Amino acid sequence: MHDFDFFLFGVMPYSVLVVFVIGSIARYERDPFTWKTASSQILRRKQLMWGSILFHVGILTLFFGHLIGLFTPVAVLDALGIPYGAKQWLAVLLGGVAGIAAFVGCTMLLHRRLADPRIRNNSTWGDIFVLGILWLQVVVGMGTITLTLGHMDGSEMVKFMTWSQSVMLLKINAWEQVIGVHFLYKVHIFLGMVIVAIFPFTRLVHMLSVPVRYLWRPGYQIVRSRWGAKPVRTGLLPIAAAGGRRAE
């Protein structure tokens, strides 16, 4: 059993990080024009809109919640006087609401991909696989909430925080921090690392190229070249700036 724990918590995190970094660089260098998410917006647009909003709001909340929750040093919580139980309740409540939103949204998107023959014929195996594994991950994550309710003192939370931070600090025995945790937690962590490993090879990679500069540079459109996304003048002025008319 300890061999499995060593592989899951001691070997797999570093293997996944290597695949993620090298895979992302290789895809960008070899296939820069596939660094996007293909659109099927003209088909079942309403279902896509609601499913996409719920899914993205839920999954991004969960992602950043996990990121902050796992990588905030325990010493910071102690210095600020934040009780572990309070942090645990915040994680349960926020994670529960975000998990429900992500589950409903992902279910709608997955159903749309599978139930409509036209969309299914225009979907790759990767499109369906990504939605499937994300749906499964959300379901397993929601299941871990029931386990968390059994130890609201934050003891298990501290184990995972210590483990994740020890991994990033390259501590060899980091895996020993989480020996004996419930199997459902292990499934949740395993699926999470699988998602990170396949990230560079699927439509998920578009998350790394979200251009934000155009938000404060109106009149530009984003054009992706081999050297990245750059704003290009469209020849148009914002409606307000042009007095309600397009610039000549």
Description:
The protein is mostly helical and 248 residues long. It folds into two domains: 2-210, Fumarate Reductase Cytochrome B subunit, CATH 1.20.950.20; 211-248, no CATH class. Helices cover 62% and strands 5% of the residues. The chain contains eight helices and two strands. The protein has helices at residues 2-30, 45-71, 74-80, 84-115, 117-121, 125-148, 155-168, 183-198; strands at 220-225, 228-233. Strands 1-2 form a two-stranded antiparallel sheet. Strand 1 (220-225) and strand 2 form a beta hairpin. Helix 2 runs antiparallel to helix 4 (84-115) and helix 6 (125-148) runs antiparallel to helix 8 (183-198). The longest helix is centred in the middle third of the chain and has 32 residues, at 84-115. The model is unreliable at 212-221, 231-237 and 244-248 (pLDDT under 50).
